[in-house]
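Figure 2 data, in text form.
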Amino acid sequence: MCAASPHHRRKGRRCPGGREFAWARDLGENGKSTPMRTPLALLASLASLVACATAGPPPGGPGPASAPPSAAAPASSVDYLAVSRALTEIDAADRRGELGDELRWAEEAERAPQDAVAQFLAVAAQPAIDDRWGGFRDLSLQFPGSALPWVGMARAYVTWRTWDQAEKALAAALQRDPRCWLAVRVRAELEEARGQPDLAHTDYQAVLGADPADPEAHLGLARLARGRGDAAEAHAQAAAALEGARTLPGAWAILAQLAEEAGEPDAAVDFWKGAVEQDPRDRGSRAALARLLSARGDPAAAVEQWRAALEIQEDPEALAALADAAQAAGDAEAEQRALERLAQLRPSAEQWRRVAEVRLAAKDLVGAERAYRRVLEDRPKDEQTSLALGRILQARGDASGAVELLRAAGAPGREELVALERRLHLEKVARADLAALQKAVQALVDRTYRERLAASPSLSGNLRVRVTVDAVGAATAVEVLEDSMHDGDVRACAYWNLRDATYPPDQPGRYSFAFAFRR
């Protein structure tokens, strides 16, 4: 009779010759469960055939090449079902970052130093994959007849996508115990990763012959069904995986995708939440949940998911999505931070313009000005940006800068420019000699000063400006050398009247103009 551990035995009947058949669930192509009888020895026979064909020492690989199984406890004594369930639990704890789980398995191993299973699980619970691989290699020396260390190394090789080493480790595991269906499951994952769906399907089904509830095998079949476009089978297998272990994020994700495709957004949200809960570091699930939350009109929840996704990995697309969600949620601070970081990663005029608008809405004139100037670096003739920046400079008292930018704004800024120039008493002064020109400009500046006294009765000081004039009588440069008044309007009046003036021709050079203001 086929021997089986207590966890493997199920109610059944004996067939002629004494072989025991166990009842198992068969999830066929239609996803329905139908009773079937699968001989427990069938998997061992299949594994033996494969092991005979592929077993051999991994060249350069860890541990001894092929120690005889008799060097350790009989392989048939290993309760692979219990080991599988423990691995599922360990993997779930690792995804959630539960470090206490590692300590628990380490304590179990300390109490049973000669127990290959306890030592194997303690190594499997270590958080770093390099440490796990090294630990499994050591176990292959300590327990040369056990298949488990080789299964552990094979899992690491599959993660690293080192296919040839994974194959050799699996062959070594099955050589030591042809009944080790955990090795067959890892082999199915290897075949799936290598684009061999038919082989993977056969191996996953073989695993279900040994453990009809194996959640990882059901999840593997769900992925394969999803890959070939069989939605019903993918749904049935993913649901079966969650029946075995609700900690598998991949099963939640498949059900979420299927729900979205079926037009069931509420169900999809619940499934994506399940995926995120079971693997908080899965950026793809968080991004999918965030998009769906935004589409369903819950931007605040989407902001939370986008933030978490960006902590895992930053990219421009996620930052843009976070900014959009934050804007919809009315979270100006989150929108601003996302936009500024996005503008740094992928600088563009449009990104900086949006940063400026957010800063302006938050009444941060300095930040808005900086952002608008970044827009002008990319688009110097952008009239709308010049207009917006001119308004900011007016608001913070920089009349000289406002005139320049409103002039650059062209037609959009014409009305505001005319009003500002009238307030500053700007004229196109032209005189035949410098003395007359200075007198005319002095009168305009005095007028502006007297008007400013109404708002600032203590206003007084000196203003000295130097102008560089060319041979045709045009000012090519204007420099403010002294300004002890610090009044934007008076300064702008002197600056722009001297800048716009027409000087006597054929008298190029530098000329200084001094203005003294006393109450």
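Caption note: Residues 1-75 have pLDDT under 50 and may be disordered.
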